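Re: the 226-residue chain
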Amino acid sequence: MKRNPLLIVMLTYNDKTAENALELFDICKNSSAEYWGIKDEGIPLVKMKKLYRQIKLHNKKAVLEVVAYTEEKCLEGAKMAVECGCDILMGTVFYDSVNLLCKENGIKYMPFVGDVYDRPSVLDGSIDDMIKQAKSYIEKGVFGIDLLAYRYTGDSNELIKKFLSEVNVPVCIAGSIDSFQRLDEIKRQLPWGYTIGSAFFDNTFGNDFCRQIEKICNYMKEPVYV
């Protein structure tokens, strides 16, 4: 039986946590979305911890996506995830030190693949190289992969299709999902999950943050028509 991809609601805009993330979660805490995330920049650590306490208190899954590229910054972000009691660490360039820290603290690690740079992040590189990278990370015990498919400088749909056909761990399609056309592609390809953040703030799917979440959750249950 096929499972619907999981929505991770990112309380973020342009790869930074929204200042009102805690207030937004409080308003939408009873929504159908199980997974909630923020980024490593945008609000202070003390506020991050408060938000994550609320997420866990309401039996939701806590996700931190770290947009960092040096080992020092990636490890710093991973330590934030530990301090905040996150369930999943997404992002970072893969480093053995980050992987080890996640394993030691029971955090599921989903690193980037490809050549990732800038903020908001951009993905470059060949699809075959990304697949090879992913397989090498899987051998080292990562939970899954954070795939910035719609930030890719090449053909996003080709990347998603080929990557998912060859990488047999949870893959989250993260970033720039801002249309029903892209949601339909997600439904066709059936990754483990996908993120939506900025599009909710831009009212892409409606004029109310919480109603947009419900609209997407319901839409993803419907069949996709070719």
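The two ends are 20 Å apart (CA to CA).
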